[in-house]
């Protein structure tokens, strides 16, 4: 596959991942009402681990090397433990639109960590587009009155930083281990530690939860926790971490759209206007040059 075609396909996979992730907060908001923070935040990994274990066994995948295992710990800490648990906690008290606005800062966090972990050097044009997108979502937050930080806000900001590191590390590792293998092994690392806390929080009342709550939880376990990451890490490995991360600017507005459809949250003209600005920043950043740091060995 030619480089240009590979990069375009990587961007497409990244978009698929973002669309799948955009249903995560709405699904979490629905599920957490009936199952609680611990079951929704950690239980999704326990369920996903069953699917992942079958896939790993059938494909007879080799165990990661000790060096790869260290990177997988970072991925597991962010994508398997930190982000699901923190967002589940936040969604107990915040509307999806609020969470969507704060998660819009994720591309900046991912690109920043990519600079250190993957050796990518975004250009000035890239950072300008990132600033434009960030300012747009900040304006949106101020307009809606989200200026004062609450505990739930802090948990979301922490989730952004943790997942940004996880995305950057996972995208780098996917180039050598494989895209779906990264999240698969991260799930297998985290799941054993989650069984006991999830089990202690299970109640018989959960069996009587409505069908939409169960559908939301299953979606979180199968798609948000595994399949979406397969597309996302594949996209970053093929299209570049910093560039593909720009697509995430679409995510908060897709979340708001899905919240409108599934949760009856309102959408305004101002929201559409901000979305258009953010889309423009994505297009600008997508075409920005991304360079790699040159090591001493490569120079010689």
UniProtKB/TrEMBL annotation:
Keywords per UniProt: Membrane, Transmembrane, Transmembrane helix
Residue spans crossing the bilayer: 41-59, 71-90, 96-114, 126-143, 149-168, 180-199, 211-232, 244-261, 267-285
GO annotation, cellular component aspect: membrane
Domain of life: Bacteria
Topology in the lipid bilayer: Multi-pass membrane protein
Domain EamA: from-to ranges: 9-140, 151-284
Pfam families: EamA (PF00892)
Protein name as catalogued: Multidrug transporter
Organism of derivation: Niallia nealsonii
Localisation per UniProt entry: Endomembrane system
Annotated family: Belongs to the EamA transporter family.
Major place of residence: membrane
């Amino acid at each position: 596959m030619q480089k240009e075609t590979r990069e375009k396909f990587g961007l497409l996979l990244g978009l698929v991942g973002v669309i799948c992730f955009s249903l995560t907060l709405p699904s979490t908001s629905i599920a957490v009402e009936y199952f609680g923070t611990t079951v929704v935040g950690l239980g999704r990994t326990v369920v996903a681990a069953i699917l992942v274990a079958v896939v790993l066994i059938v494909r007879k995948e080799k165990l990661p090397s000790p060096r790869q295992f260290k990177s997988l710990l970072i991925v597991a800490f962010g994508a398997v433990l930190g982000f699901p648990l923190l967002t589940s906690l936040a969604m107990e008290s915040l509307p999806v639109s609020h969470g969507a606005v704060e998660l819009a800062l994720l591309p900046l966090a991912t690109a920043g960590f990519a600079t250190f972990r993957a050796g990518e050097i975004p250009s000035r044009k890239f950072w300008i587009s990132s600033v434009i997108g960030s300012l747009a979502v900040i304006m949106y937050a101020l307009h809606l009155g989200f200026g004062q930080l609450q505990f739930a806000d802090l948990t979301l900001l922490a989730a952004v930083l943790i997942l940004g590191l996880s995305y950057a590390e996972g995208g780098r590792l996917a180039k050598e281990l494989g895209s779906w293998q990264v999240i698969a092994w991260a799930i297998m690392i985290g799941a054993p530690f989650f069984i006991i806390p999830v089990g202690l929080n299970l109640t018989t009342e959960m069996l009587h939860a409505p069908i939409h709550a169960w559908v939301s939880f299953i979606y979180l376990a199968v798609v948000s926790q595994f399949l979406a990451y397969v597309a996302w890490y594949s996209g970053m490995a093929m299209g570049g971490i910093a560039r593909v991360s720009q697509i995430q600017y679409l995510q908060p507005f897709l979340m708001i759209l899905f919240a409108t459809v599934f949760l009856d949250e309102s959408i305004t003209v101002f929201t559409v206007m901000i979305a258009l600005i953010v889309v423009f920043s994505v297009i600008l950043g997508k075409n920005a040059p991304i360079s790699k740091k040159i090591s001493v060995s490569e120079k010689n």
